[in-house]
């Protein structure tokens, strides 16, 4: 039997890592025994309720705090889901990676 608290810990980790790449992300008030729901708003102002469970991430509604069975497609990672539903997520992710690489290149140049 799965431990519900583990899903909340996983959700909190996703929230922490994705906060700067989305307009809004939080744990939903919906309760499920074998996972957790997330309310997500993309940079394009699109809202989704996403189920996170042992199968991965699945968009279940285009409204916060509802599971309407919107999709049956599961994504293995949060990156796969968010890059599929938000072009601005991809753009912002690439900008952040580029900034980190430039920062790292500067540190390497300083050491030479």
Automatic annotation (TrEMBL):
UniProt-listed InterPro entries: GSKIP (IPR037395), GSKIP_dom (IPR007967), GSKIP_dom_sf (IPR023231)
GO biological process: regulation of canonical Wnt signaling pathway
CC annotations in GO: cytoplasm
GSKIP domain boundaries: 9-103
Molecular function as annotated in GO: kinase regulator activity; protein kinase A binding
Pfam annotation, one family: GSKIP_dom
UniProt superkingdom: Eukaryota
Transmembrane segments: none
Family: Belongs to the GSKIP family.
PANTHER family xref list: GSK3B-INTERACTING PROTEIN
Listed name of the protein: GSK3B-interacting protein-like
Upper lineage: Eukaryota, Metazoa, Ecdysozoa, Arthropoda, Hexapoda
């Amino acid at each position: 039997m799965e431990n519900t608290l583990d899903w909340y810990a996983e959700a909190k980790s996703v929230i922490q890592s994705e906060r700067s790449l989305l307009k809004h992300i939080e744990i939903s008030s919906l309760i499920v025994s074998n996972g957790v729901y997330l309310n997500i708003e993309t940079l394009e102002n699109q809202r989704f309720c996403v189920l996170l469970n042992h199968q991965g991430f699945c968009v279940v509604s285009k409204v916060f705090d509802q599971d309407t069975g919107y999709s049956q497609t599961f994504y293995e990672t949060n990156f796969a889901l968010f890059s599929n539903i938000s072009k601005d997520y991809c753009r912002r992710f690439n900008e952040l990676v580029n900034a980190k690489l430039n920062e790292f290149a500067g540190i390497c140049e300083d050491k030479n």
